[in-house]
Design a protein that fits this description.
5-stranded antiparallel β-sheet, alpha+beta, disordered N terminus, GMP Synthetase, Chain A, domain 3, single chain, two-stranded antiparallel ribbon, 3 domains
Length: about 550
């Protein structure tokens, strides 16, 4: 009787099927696979040890003989006001790339004679600046863990984000690392020289920023004594006196602009501790009580070395003053007309007045009646008027300021026109009469001495004004002596393309993959040997195995 005949009938009903060689016929057993792999245990162990040794030796070889770069670094911090917000103390824009700009690197490259070690392009390409703020990194890790909690409510998450922003702003310290990475194959630069090069880059950047760009000075025009050229000391007495008068007026206007700087009125400089208002008063005294009387004296005596040149000068200055006055009048009329037209039309914003706004509102409401019907026409009109009110006020203020400036300008030009008219009225009879002008040595020497005294007084006051400007700039814009400070030591290290940790991880992964494929290879070899490659029945091992299999089948039946 076979197994199939007894299954489900008689006494065997409800019992598990019989065993065949100790295994149920309808079950999958891993015992043959384990038995097969056990036969290959020595091969698997041998290959595992061999592959581990190969990976170990290969990793050591790659790490030792891989190309390495030499890296030099220096950590520094910017200490000027505005560095966190990307601008210098005088509001000029700042970017950290300026530290390694071409003019700075060129100066450092040439001064340190780095052409012995590398080309300028290699030197420039090897430099870079990175932000370095460990406290900020730790803060990010801390809040990353807190915000990763899935139990947070939206309110708690918003509070955490706000706290993170506040603490991040408090830790916004402009701290950076300047690094030079020596390319492969480049001649090694001595460590002492490399440290000096990095320090020179920072010092050169600070020096050029202060001296060439004036980042520690206000963005205000300031005249210096170079405006008083040496030509004022020689030439026609009347002409050079008039030129000096014009320059003093320019200096006075410049001082009025400087008085708008914060705290400049209380700053005092020099041995006499003079202030800017006092300097302005001194210049006005030189103009009104010394230069103008000297000019009147020169006019009355017609003290000129060249009458024709003086007449041409007076005519030209009178013509220029008349032309400037007419131009200023026309400018005032045009600006007043623009302001009047703007006010009379109710204001124009973006080329559309109040009527245009109403028509646009009506067309917009007709196009979208279903979207905003709940607001009403009056509400929309108020919204549009409020949106345009700010622009209207700004435009009117701008036009009004321009009109005021033009009227101030025309007042000055009117005074200049009267001045040259009086000058022409005094000199014209003398020059046209043809009488001989008294150029006695005593009179000329007296005029020269008085003029040089006035000129020296103007030079002294201009120098004092520049000293006041530098002092207020130093107090307000640069309370410290430098733009940066070194916060870390100079470090030199070797940078490898592949780190030991990366090599170890890759080796372990490769070894695990090989260990997974070794059993598969062994099973495939066993299957090929038993089922695909034909076996010789005359071999003793094959014959004994077939007899054992037949005996097991007989016992099972």
């Amino acid at each position: 009787m076979t197994t199939e005949d007894t299954r489900g009938t008689g006494d065997n009903a409800g019992h598990p099927p019989p065993l065949t060689n100790g295994i149920y016929e309808d079950e999958i057993s891993l015992r043959p696979l384990v038995r097969t792999l056990w036969q290959y245990r020595q091969i698997i162990a041998t290959w595992t040890i061999l592959l581990a040794a190969i990976f170990l030796v290969g990793s050591i070889f790659i790490y030792v003989f891989q190309p390495a770069d030499r890296q030099a670094s220096m950590e520094f911090r910017l200490i000027f006001d505005g560095a966190n917000n990307g601008h210098y103390p005088n509001s000029l824009p700042f970017d950290r790339s300026e530290i390694i700009a071409t003019p700075i690197l060129t100066e450092v490259y040439e001064s340190n004679e780095l052409e012995r070690y590398c080309t300028y392009g290699q030197f420039q390409n090897g430099l870079f600046i990175l932000e370095s703020n460990r406290e900020l990194d730790l803060l990010g890790f801390e809040f990353q863990t807190k915000l990763g909690d899935s139990r947070l409510t939206p309110v708690d998450r918003a509070n955490l984000e706000e706290e993170f922003r506040q603490r991040r702003e408090a830790l916004q310290v402009p701290q950076y690392v300047i690094t030079f990475l020596r390319p492969i194959g480049l001649t090694t630069i001595p460590d002492e020289l490399m440290g000096k090069v990095l320090d020179d880059i920072l010092s050169e950047w600070a020096d050029q920023a202060v001296t060439r760009r004036g980042v520690l000075n206000y963005q205000t025009s300031l005249y210096t004594t170079t405006l008083l050229s040496q030509e004022l000391a020689v030439g026609d007495h009347i002409v050079r006196a008039d030129i000096l008068r014009g320059k003093i007026n320019r200096f006075l206007i410049n001082l009025i602009e400087l008085e708008t700087l914060p705290g400049i009125s209380v700053v005092r400089v020099g041995v006499n501790r003079i202030s800017l208002p006092e300097i302005r008063a001194n210049l006005e005294d030189l103009l009104h009580y010394f230069l103008n009387p000297l000019t009147a004296h020169l006019w009355s005596n017609g003290l000129s070395s060249d009458a024709n040149l003086l007449q041409s000068y007076v005519d030209n200055r009178l013509f220029d003053s008349e032309a400037d006055f007419l131009e200023a009048e026309q400018k005032i009329r045009s600006r007043e007309q623009a302001l009047g037209a703007y006010v009379s039309t109710g204001g124009v914003v973006n080329g559309m007045g109040n009527e245009g706004r109403v028509s646009a509102d009506s067309s917009q409401q007709s196009a979208m009646p279903a979207l905003i019907t709940q607001f009403g026409d009056s509400f929309l009109d108020r919204l549009i008027s409020m949106a345009g009110a700010t622009e209207d006020v700004q435009y009117r203020q701008q036009l009004t300021n321009l009109v005021i400036e033009s009227k101030d300008e025309i007042g000055v030009l009117q005074r200049e026109r009267a001045y040259y008219s009086r000058m022409n009225n005094i000199l014209e009879p003398i020059l046209r009469s043809g009488r001989q002008v008294d150029l006695s040595p005593e009179l000329v020497r007296e005029a020269d001495n008085r003029f040089l005294e006035i000129l020296d007084g103007v030079v002294e006051n201009v120098e004092q004004a520049n000293a006041v400007y530098e002092e207020v700039s130093a107090q307000n814009l640069n309370p410290r002596t430098t733009l940066f400070t070194i916060t870390g030591p100079f470090t030199v290290g070797t940078v490898f393309g592949v780190t030991p940790g990366t090599l170890a991880i890759n080796s372990v992964i490769a070894l695990v993959v090989c260990f997974m494929f070794l059993p598969l290879i062994c099973l495939m070899h066993n299957y090929f040997r038993q089922h695909i490659r034909p076996a010789d029945p005359q071999q003793p091992g094959v014959r004994a195995e077939e007899e054992q299999r037949a005996r097991a089948e007989t016992i099972g039946t």
